[in-house]
Write a structure and sequence with these properties.
single chain, mainly alpha, abc type-2 transporter like fold, four-stranded mixed beta sheet, two-stranded antiparallel sheet, 22 helices, about 5% strand, flat
Length: about 725
C-alpha cells in the first residue's frame, strides 16, 4: 500500500509541476461533461409546441365548397380557420398546390397538405345517399431529416381532428335548423313522430309480403336455371364427343385412303416364290424318301447330296424371309407371319441336315430322317396356305373391303356433322334463355335485398320514433341543439375521452435522455484519459522492485481521481445547471461515481494489458453500446446481435440505475444495477492483471511495428 500511495503522490507532483499537464487534466474532467449537457439541452423538449411550431408544413386549400338545402358550405375554409389557431406545427398557407408541393421537394417545407376541390362535396356526400370518403393529399420529405417526419405526423393528426369536428359541426347545424323550423311552424314533434311510427309499421308489414313474393320468384328462377344448366352441360358434352369422334373418323378415313392394293407384280412375285419353294420341297422329299427306304445309301447321300440340299434349303429360307419382309411392309401382317413361320421351319430342316453324320446308328439315322420328313411336310403345308391366302384373301377380297370401309366412313361422318350442327344451334338457343333467366334472378335478388334493407330500416325508425314520442328525448334534443353548436360538435366528434395515467412520469424529454448522454460522456471521458495518460510506469517514476499489482493500482489512482471528478461535474451539472428531473439526487450522484470508476477501470485494464489493442477494444465497446444499449431505441427493436450482447453491456446497468433516480425507485432495481457494475469493476481488475504478462510480447511487436512506420505515435 505504501508503494501504491507513493506512486499516486508522485503523479500528483508531476501534474502540479506542469501547466500543460494541469490544463490537460482539467480538459479531461470538463470536456466530456459539455458533451452530455449539450446533447441533453438539444433533446430537452423536441416534441412540444414551442419546438414543433418551428417545423414548416405547407397547406393549400383548393376546396370549392358545395351547397345543401340552399346553404353554401366550405369545409376547407373551416379547416384553414382551425389550423390558423393551431400552434402545434408551423403552418404555412400556400396560394396553390404547386408551390406547396415544390416547397417539399426543395426542402423549404417538411411536409405539405393539399385539400382537393371536391373535399366539401365528399364530406357532404351522405346527404345524397352516396357515401364518399373525403381525401386530403399529404406530401412528406423524408430526406431532409430522420426525425422530422415523425413530428409532422402530428400535422396529420391535428388535421384529422379538425376535419371530424367540422363534419359533426355541419350535422349539428342541420339538426338545429330543422328543430327551429319545426318549432316556428307549430309542429308537435311527439305527435308527429307517433303518427309517422304507425305508418312505418304498416309499411314494414307490406314489405314483408313483398319480400316473400320476391323470394318465391327467386326460387323459381333457380329451378329453371338449374334445368338449363343441366341441359346445356349435356349438350356441351355431346358436342365434345361428336367433335372428338369426327376428328377420329377423319383421321381413320385419311389413313384408309392411304391403304392400296399391292401391285400385281408384287403379288405375282409372292406367288412365284411360294410355288418355287413348293417345287423344291417336292424334290427334297423324293431324296429323303429314297434315303429312308435304302434305295440311296446313307453314306452316298452324305457325300453327294447332303451339302447340295442344305444350300437349297438355305436359299428357300432366304427367299421366305425376303418375301415376308415385302408383304409386311405392305401391311399384310398375317401373311408376313406365315412367311416367318415357313422360314423357321426351313432353318430347322437345314440344321437337321447338317447334323447328319456317318457315326450315327441305324436307329438314330431313321429318327433324324423321320424328323426331317415331318418338317418337310410342315413346310409344304405352310407353302400351300400362303398360296391360298395370297390368291384369295388379298387378290380378291381386299379391294372390296377397302371400298366398303371408305364408303361407310364417309357416310358416317356426314351423319355426325349434321348432328353436331343441330346441337350447336340448340346450345345457342338455350344459352340465350339461360342468360335471360340469370339476369331475371339477379334483378329479383337485388329487389329482395333492397326490400329487406328498407323493412329493417323501417322497423328501426318506427321503434326509435315510438320511444322518442313517449319521453322527453325530443325536448332535450331541442334544448341541446339550441345551445352552442361548436360545443355540441366538439362533443359529438370526440364523445369518448382517454384518461391516461402515466407510471413513473418524467416531465421533459431531456430528462428521459439524460442517463444515456451522461453515461456516454463518462465512457468517452474514460477512453480519452486512457489515450492521453500513460497507464504504465517507467522505472524512474517510482521505487524499484515494484510488484505488478503495485504498478497497476498505483497508476490507476490518478485515473480514479479523474473519473471521480468527471462523475461529480457531469452529475451535479445535470441536476443544478441543466435542471433535469431527479427524485433522488444523492443516489444519482452516487450512480455517476460508480459509473465513472467502472468505466475508467474497464478502459484502464484494457490498455494496461493489451496496450494499442486495448485502445481499439475500448472504442469498439463504445460503438456497440451506443448502438445497442437501448439508450435511444428500445432494445427489442434492435437487430439480434445487439439483443444478445445487451445483458453484457455496462451502459445497460449504468443507465438503469440513473433512470431509477430520475423517474422513481422500484423494488431494489437501483442497488441491483450498482452491484452488477461493481462485479464488472472487479472482473476488469482481474483481466488487467491476468493478461499483462501473456500479452507483453505481442504488445512489444506491435509497438516496434508502429515505430518503424515513422508516422504513428
Amino acid at each position: 500500500m505504501k508503494n501504491i500511495l507513493g506512486i499516486i503522490r508522485h503523479d500528483l507532483r508531476k501534474i502540479t509541476g506542469s501547466v500543460v499537464a494541469m490544463i490537460t487534466i482539467l480538459g479531461l474532467c470538463i470536456i466530456p461533461c459539455l458533451y452530455a449537457w449539450f446533447n441533453i439541452f438539444s433533446n430537452w423538449a423536441p416534441y412540444e409546441s414551442d419546438a414543433t411550431g418551428r417545423i414548416s408544413v405547407a397547406v393549400a386549400n383548393l376546396d370549392k365548397g358545395d351547397s345543401v338545402a340552399g346553404l353554401s358550405i366550405n369545409v376547407g375554409d373551416k379547416l384553414i380557420e382551425a389550423l390558423e389557431a393551431n400552434s402545434d406545427i408551423g403552418w404555412v398557407f400556400a396560394d396553390d398546390d404547386e408551390s406547396a408541393i415544390e416547397g417539399v421537394y426543395s426542402g423549404d417545407y417538411y411536409a405539405a397538405l393539399v385539400i382537393p376541390e371536391d373535399f366539401t362535396s365528399d364530406v357532404l356526400s351522405f346527404t345524397q345517399g352516396d357515401l364518399t370518403n373525403p381525401t386530403i393529399k399529404y406530401y412528406e420529405n423524408e430526406k431532409k431529416n430522420a426525425i422530422a417526419p415523425k413530428i409532422t405526423n402530428k400535422a396529420q393528426e391535428a388535421l384529422q381532428d379538425e376535419i371530424n369536428a367540422a363534419f359533426v359541426e355541419t350535422l349539428a347545424g342541420y339538426v338545429s335548423d330543422a328543430a327551429a323550423i319545426a318549432d316556428a311552424n307549430g309542429i308537435d314533434p311527439a305527435s308527429l313522430l307517433a303518427d309517422i311510427s304507425d305508418r312505418i309499421e304498416d309499411l314494414s308489414g307490406d314489405l314483408d309480403s313483398c319480400i316473400t313474393l320476391a323470394d318465391s320468384a327467386a326460387g323459381l328462377t333457380d329451378a329453371a336455371g338449374s334445368l338449363l344448366d343441366v341441359s346445356d352441360t349435356f349438350i356441351g358434352s355431346t358436342q365434345d364427343v361428336l367433335a372428338s369422334n369426327d376428328k377420329l373418323l377423319k383421321e381413320a378415313q385419311e389413313e384408309l385412303n392411304k391403304v392400296k392394293k399391292p401391285d400385281t407384280s408384287e403379288i405375282d412375285a409372292a406367288i412365284d416364290k411360294a410355288e418355287e419353294i413348293a417345287g423344291s420341297l417336292e424334290t427334297f422329299k423324293t431324296i429323303v424318301v429314297q434315303v429312308m427306304s435304302g434305295e440311296l445309301a446313307f453314306d452316298v447321300f452324305l457325300d453327294l447330296n447332303r451339302d447340295d440340299l442344305v444350300t437349297k434349303v438355305n436359299k428357300l429360307k432366304n427367299a421366305a424371309d425376303e418375301q415376308g419382309a415385302i408383304v409386311k411392309s405392305e401391311g399384310f401382317t398375317a401373311l408376313a407371319s406365315e412367311f416367318e413361320e415357313l422360314s423357321k421351319t426351313l432353318a430347322r430342316i437345314s440344321s437337321e441336315l447338317s447334323a447328319l453324320n456317318t457315326g450315327m446308328s441305324h436307329d438314330e439315322r431313321l429318327a433324324a430322317l423321320t424328323k426331317i420328313s415331318d418338317d418337310h411336310d410342315k413346310a409344304v403345308a405352310l407353302t400351300e396356305k400362303i398360296l391360298k391366302q395370297i390368291k384369295t384373301d388379298i387378290d380378291e377380297d381386299l379391294e372390296t373391303a377397302l371400298k366398303n370401309a371408305r364408303t361407310s366412313l364417309s357416310d358416317f361422318r356426314s351423319t355426325m356433322s349434321g348432328a353436331q350442327k343441330g346441337l350447336g344451334s340448340l346450345s345457342r338457343t338455350m344459352g340465350s334463355y339461360e342468360s335471360a333467366i340469370a339476369g331475371l334472378k339477379k334483378s329479383i335478388e337485388k329487389t329482395s335485398k333492397g326490400l329487406e334493407d328498407l323493412r329493417d330500416g323501417a322497423d328501426s325508425v318506427a321503434g326509435l320514433l315510438m320511444n322518442a314520442s313517449g319521453n322527453d328525448l325530443l325536448q332535450e334534443l331541442s334544448t341541446l341543439m339550441g345551445g352552442d353548436e361548436a360545443a355540441v360538435a366538439e362533443y359529438l366528434a370526440n364523445p369518448i375521452k382517454m384518461k391516461t395515467e402515466v407510471i413513473w412520469p418524467i416531465a421533459t424529454f431531456g430528462s428521459v435522455m439524460a442517463p444515456f448522454y451522461t453515461v456516454l460522456a463518462q465512457w468517452v471521458g474514460a477512453l480519452l484519459t486512457a489515450v492521453l495518460i500513460k497507464v504504465r510506469l517507467r522505472k524512474r517514476e517510482g521505487p524499484e522492485k515494484l510488484r505488478l499489482h503495485q504498478w497497476y493500482f498505483g497508476r490507476f489512482g490518478l485515473f480514479m481521481l479523474i473519473g471521480l471528478a468527471q462523475a461529480l461535474i457531469v452529475s451535479l451539472g445535470d441536476i443544478l445547471y441543466i435542471g433535469i428531473q431527479c427524485v433522488s439526487p444523492v443516489r444519482f450522484v452516487l450512480a455517476a461515481i460508480v459509473n465513472g470508476l467502472v468505466f475508467m477501470m474497464i478502459n484502464y485494464a484494457l490498455v494496461f494489458a493489451l496496450d494499442n489493442i486495448g485502445l481499439a477494444a475500448g472504442v469498439i465497446i463504445l460503438v456497440l453500446q451506443v448502438a445497442g444499449s437501448g439508450g435511444t431505441y428500445p432494445v427489442e427493436v434492435l437487430p439480434g446481435i445487439f439483443r444478445t450482447l445487451y445483458p453484457l453491456m455496462p451502459f445497460h446497468y449504468a443507465m438503469d440505475a440513473m433512470r431509477e433516480c430520475i423517474g422513481g425507485m422500484y423494488d431494489g432495481t437501483y442497488w441491483r444495477c450498482i452491484g452488477i457494475l461493481m462485479l464488472i469493476f472487479l472482473f476488469s481488475i482481474a483481466f488487467g492483471l491476468a493478461f499483462y504478462r501473456p500479452a507483453r510480447k505481442l504488445n512489444e511487436v506491435i509497438a516496434r511495428s508502429k515505430e518503424g512506420s515513422e508516422i504513428m505515435l
